[in-house]
């Protein structure tokens, strides 16, 4: 129900137009959102992303350096007493404690995105084993067994390759790497 409508108004009655003191411009198309439409709430993930973006900026690091310099310069004024030391110890401990959760959230989000991308690559690559999708749900023993299995497969593949086919392990940025033919075995 609009705020200008009476309590018993039906949907068929048009709402009263809002009164304007100045004439409206046809080019002015900016509108305010309806007053009873709630703004979307910021989730912890959105908050953590915004905060991690802000914390990773050079300005934030500079601000932290300035705060530490100001704290150090205030030492003679407070006679380097225990309270003066407690201020920096407590504040850095609290910030570090909170940053652990922020960093973990960022790592989880990045890890999830990486898994999705890898799962998609496995899904569309012909000859790939679809059983490898969602390996992150396995426990440590199952992952170790798979890692050992793939280490054996890699060792067998190295034995079958000739010396010319092996790509050197240490490739510097200035060396030319032989270009390989792109794989054309994508599933439809």
Helix/strand layout:
Layout: H1 44-55, H2 58-73, H3 82-124, H4 140-160
Helix pairs in contact: 1-3
What does this structure look like?
This protein is mainly alpha-helical and 188 residues long. It has a domain at 44-129. 49% of the residues lie in helices and 0% in strands. α1 crosses α3. The radius of gyration is 31 Å and the shape is elongated. The two termini are 51 Å apart.
List keywords for this structure.
single chain, 188 residues, mainly alpha, disordered N terminus
C-alpha end-to-end distance: 51 Å
The total of beta strands comes to 0
- One letter per element, helices H and strands E, the order comes to HHHH
Write down the overall mean pLDDT. Answer: 74
Radius of gyration: 31 Å
Question: Which percent bin holds the helix content?
Answer: 40-55%
Low-confidence stretches: 1-29, 169-174
Beta-strand content: under 5%
In DSSP terms (H or I, runs of 4 or more residues), the helix count works out at 4
Shape: elongated
Q: How would you sum up the major sheet?
A: none
Class from secondary-structure proportions: mainly alpha
Brief overview:
With about 190 residues, the chain is mainly α. The protein is built from 4 helices and no strands.
């Amino acid at each position: 129900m609009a705020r200008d409508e009476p309590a018993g108004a039906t949907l068929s009655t048009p709402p009263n137009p809002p009164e304007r003191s100045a004439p409206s411009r046809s080019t002015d198309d900016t509108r305010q959102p309806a007053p009873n439409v709630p703004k979307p709430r910021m989730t912890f993930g959105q908050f953590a992303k915004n905060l991690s973006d802000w914390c990773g900026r050079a300005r934030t690091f500079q601000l932290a350096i300035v705060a530490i310099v100001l704290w150090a310069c205030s030492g003679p004024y407070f006679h380097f007493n225990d309270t003066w030391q407690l201020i920096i110890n407590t504040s850095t401990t609290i910030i570090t404690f909170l940053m652990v959760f922020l960093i973990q959230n960022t790592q989880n989000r990045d890890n999830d995105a990486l898994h999705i991308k890898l799962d998609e690559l496995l899904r569309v690559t012909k000859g790939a084993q679809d059983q490898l999708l969602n390996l992150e749900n396995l426990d440590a023993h199952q992952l170790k067994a798979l890692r050992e299995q793939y280490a054996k497969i890699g060792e067998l593949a190295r034995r079958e390759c000739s010396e010319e086919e092996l790509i050197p392990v240490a490739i510097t940025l200035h060396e030319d790497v032989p270009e390989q033919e792109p794989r054309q075995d994508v599933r439809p």
